[in-house]
Amino acid sequence: MDLLQSSYAPEDASSPEESAADSSPDSSPLRLPSKSAAPAVDDTALALSAAASASRPLDPSLHLVAFNPTADQLWAPIVGPQHPHAPISSASGNRNHKLGHVEDAAVLPFLFDEQYNTFHRFGYASDPSGLHIVGDAQTQPPEPDTVYNLAPSEHKRRRLLAKGDNQEEPLPPEARNPASEDWVLHNKQSPWAGKKEAPPAELTEEQKQYAEAHAAKKAEKEARAEGKVERAEVVVKSTFHGKEERDYQGRSWITPPKDAKATNDHCYIPKRCVHEWVGHTKGVSAIRFFPKYGHLLLSASMDCKIKIWDVLESRTCIRTYMGHSKAVRDISFSNDGTKFLSAGYDRNIQYWDTETGQVISTFSTGKVPYVVKLNPDEDKQHILLAGMSDKKIVQWDMKSGQITQEYDQHLGAVNTITFVDNNRRFVTSSDDKSLRVWEFGIPVVIKYISEPHMHSMPSIALHPNSNWLAAQSLDNQILIYSTKERFQLNKKKRFAGHIVAGYACQVNFSPDGRFVMSGDGEGSCWFWDWKSCRRFKTLKCHNGVCIGCEWHPLETSKVATCGWDGVIKYWD
Description:
Layout: H1 2-8, H2 16-22, H3 43-55, H4 71-74, H5 109-122, E1 124-126, E2 133-135, H6 152-163, H7 181-187, H8 205-225, E3 237-240, E4 273-278, E5 284-289, E6 296-301, E7 305-310, E8 317-322, E9 328-333, E10 339-344, E11 349-353, E12 359-363, E13 369-374, E14 383-388, E15 393-397, E16 402-407, E17 414-420, E18 425-430, E19 435-439, E20 442-449, E21 459-462, E22 468-473, E23 477-482, E24 489-496, E25 507-509, E26 515-519, E27 524-529, E28 535-540, E29 546-551, E30 559-563, E31 567-571
Antiparallel strand pairs: 1-2, 3-8, 4-31, 5-6, 6-7, 7-8, 9-10, 10-11, 11-12, 13-14, 14-15, 15-16, 17-18, 18-19, 19-20, 21-22, 22-23, 23-24, 25-26, 26-27, 27-28, 29-30, 30-31
């Protein structure tokens, strides 16, 4: 550096001040002029293009804008023709929908439905602001109405006008007011006048018969509601089908054979069907063997008839009892079998003479009897108990024909009545899913059995040793209750496997108490062993429901079953 300075130093020496002034940066002879490395740009062309862009509108098809447009350019209308098939862009104008600009408005659901249905029905509607009517201008009336404030007659008139069937002129505004005279003149009657009745047309014979039957049924229903029920007059008759009612010795046909006695105390399960009784035209609802001997079989059917069949000899129908106008629900023999009770859906209980077929007496409370029983005591065979559909057990004295007691504690229709404890008490079951124990003659419940898991029990049978009750429960099982003081459920004994839900299938015991049997809803008869509670055998008996089953009191291996197919079968 000293060499360079010395080489550039002047030949003649100068003062120190001058040398300092000459060595300052401003006066340095080594400073070069500054120059830019960027290429030269024509500012004139750039200014002209910016001015042209600021003056022309934006092209809506552009996706990239090279400058900052103003608000006027953004909202300026499109200039020039548009392609007719070009897609509509949201950038073209003030749009928030492909069809234009949609404003938000708060409309109640009812008002929206009203205008929506009006538009689809009449072709016009009011916009959300309520200031304008939109739609077909030709169908708009001077005072637009909606579908909700038009009378039905106006709807009908407009419908006819739309079809072209009614070419009458639209009503003037004055004629729409029911209080005006124009409305009365147009409608030819007062708005408060009753409906005009057309002259009655001539009815056909079939229509007349139907009208008479309907009127009779209505009158009967009204009389029943008022408590003035009159028993329908039914012709009570009985037909004997046997050869003769008495034999050469003068004995009646119901007299049991002298040699009838139990051949064996040990019962056996039947294996095959040995006979079928066919005579009922509808389903059989109940069967009962003649007490102690079983040489006759009584059957009640839904065809309103009761028949009695010979079991030992001819195995034919001996007598038919016809006295009910509707299906027969239940039957029950007296102790000696010379008389029996029948309960029908015609609300009547009839007391029959088995031999002659005559009705001794008839009882009714106006309700449907579901079960009928006579007191098993020999000195109380004139006392009748009936479980009714109105939740009562009614007790009659058949000698006087008067109601002597009413047991009214159940909350549903009474289904069964079973005497226990040497006939001093009786157990009833009901649709209220409970069991109640009563002291005979005292209308106070001494034992009430009801659990949350219990179901209705439409059939109950007493064990031959009188210590147990078998109750058919509608949850497809048979429950066992003790007949002692506590009437406790025996949890160790339970018979299941059959399907009875919805059907009042009868449960029964063999005479020696070794077997429990029951019908089921699929037409089978089930047999269980009493001690082990195991299923012993199942017989396919009927095509429909097997509703009833009875073990012969003397023939220890024979069983009778009945079903809704109208057939009674005898098994051995």
